Amino acid sequence: MSKPESEGQSPESARGELSPQDRFDRMVAADSRIEPRDWMPDGYRKTLIRQIAQHAHSEIIGMQPEGNWITRAPSLRRKAILLAKVQDEAGHGLYLYAATETLGVDRSELTENLINGRQKYSSIFNYPTLTFADVGVIGWLVDGAAICNQVPLCRTSYGPYARAMIRICKEESFHQRQGYELLMTMMSGTQAQRDLVQESVNRWWWPALMMFGPPDAESSNTEQSMAWRIKRDTNDELRQKFVNMSMPQAEKLGVTFPDPELRWNAERGQYDFGQPDWAEFWRVVGGDGPCNRQRIAHRRKAHEDGAWVREAASAHAAKARAAATVGEVAS
Ligand SMILES: [Fe+2]
Ligand SMILES: [Fe+2]
């Protein structure tokens, strides 16, 4: 049973002078947002930098698998949709890099960490896009899994991250719908088109389930992140939610998932399902997936090719600053 407020307080806190740690703990417990200027424990800051940077990198690297199909989209309409979607992902990366910068790191440092392999991105983007059906399946399942992961992050304890996620989630649900709409169109086409969709679903289903991370028993960061309210649900809870959400959509679409254990469990009121190949997951996370090297090489080349743009932009900004200073002196 808890004591009345006045009892058990130190003289400092009775005068309203909480220690920074106490103030932080209270804010987190009250579901208030921690802002960049607030005191925060080192571990909290480090965890957020790692998580938000990894999220930003995933948005940027995630442009590659779908970007691969922009020049080969089957119609002008599909090309315009795909271009807009890939561009949205660039925007998500930028919001998230900006959110990470509020924690005291520099974006150029984060980019270096990505291309040197010191920071990770979601393992899903190390799988290749072999057919145009993959564009639809990525929208439906990969953006769908991202939404399951990200909607709870709109209530995460760090203010700039939570606010970025609200905007990102709105666009992600658009992405998911465009993917589903593309698949609906293909499924109402020829048998060859329907086969393409099913073949693509077979390849993406397990990697999509891996997007929620390892099982709770093996997830080293979950407990602390939940206590800090950075994370609001466990990996296994989110995975279950995703399966529950995806099954009726698959039935409506007319495709199946490649899991013989997948069936409705009336007692639990949820779907039972099999486990992904976790050895494959760790292999891909460790850098040995089908496209890891290609993705990083491509990102590194884009970064190097963009050096002149960054130099020109800095020179322009310096000039504008100098002109403003001259203006101030003159007036
Ligand atoms: Fe995104
Ligand atoms: Fe997306």
Detailed description of the structure:
One of its GO terms (molecular function) is phenylacetyl-CoA 1,2-epoxidase activity. It is an enzyme of class 1 (oxidoreductase). This is 1,2-phenylacetyl-CoA epoxidase subunit A. InterPro entries: Aromatic_CoA_ox/epox, Ferritin-like, Ferritin-like_SF, PaaA, PaaA_PaaC. The protein has one domain (20-330): Ferritin (Up-down Bundle), CATH 1.20.1260. 64% of the residues lie in helices and 2% in strands. The chain contains 14 helices and 2 strands. A two-stranded antiparallel sheet has the order 1-2. Helix 3 (42-61) runs antiparallel to helix 5 (76-101). It is globular and about 75 Å long. Mean pLDDT is 92; it is low at 1-8. The structure holds fe (ii) ion (2 copies). One fe (ii) ion (FE2) binds at residues 59, 89, 92, 168, 172.
